[in-house]
Design goal:
By secondary structure, this protein is α/β, with parallel strands linked by helices. The protein has 4 helices and 8 strands, in the order E-E-E-H-H-E-H-E-H-E-E-E. The strands form 2 sheets. The protein has a 6-stranded mixed beta sheet with strand order 4-3-2-1-5-8. A two-stranded antiparallel sheet has the order 6-7.
C-alpha cells in the first residue's frame, strides 16, 4: 500500500518532533516524540502550538523514540511491501532514523520502498 509521509523536526538537521503516515486507504498514523532539544524560533512559532492538536487534542501522547519506533513497526507490520512517498528527503531520513532502535538494531520492517516526489 502507498503511504504519504510528513515529519516535523527541530529545524534543519534537528531531532524528530512528529511523524505522520497517511495511507491511500485506511487509518493514518500520527506520532509525536519527546525531546529536550532547543527549538528553532520558526519551529517554536509555527509547529509547536499545533503539535499536540492533530489529529485531536491530546489524543496522541508524546512518545520516547523507542516507543515511537515500535508504534511504527506495529502500524506497518501487516503490509508486506509498503511504499512510503515523501516530498522532502529529510522526511525519509527521519523515517529511516526512527527505524533504528540501537547500535545495529532496527525494528522488524522489511521490503520498504521509498519514493521522493519533490513539490
Amino acid at each position: 500500500m502507498r503511504y504519504f509521509l510528513d515529519t516535523e523536526y527541530y529545524g534543519f538537521g534537528g531531532a524528530l518532533l512528529s511523524l505522520a503516515l497517511v495511507p491511500a486507504d485506511g487509518d493514518e498514523l500520527y506520532l509525536t516524540l519527546k525531546s529536550d532539544e532547543h527549538l528553532v524560533d520558526w519551529v517554536e512559532r509555527h509547529v509547536l502550538p499545533y503539535l499536540d492538536m492533530v489529529p485531536e487534542p491530546l489524543s496522541c501522547p508524546r512518545l520516547s523514540r523507542r516507543d515511537a519506533a515500535h508504534a511504527l513497526e506495529r502500524y506497518l507490520r501487516h503490509d508486506e511491501e509498503p511504499l512510503i512517498v515523501a516530498d522532502c528527503p529529510e522526511d525519509i531520513l527521519h523515517f529511516c532514523n526512527l527505524m533504528m532502535t540501537g547500535r545495529g538494531d532496527m525494528i522488524e520492517l522489511r521490503h520498504l520502498t521509498f519514493r521522493l516526489v519533490p513539490m
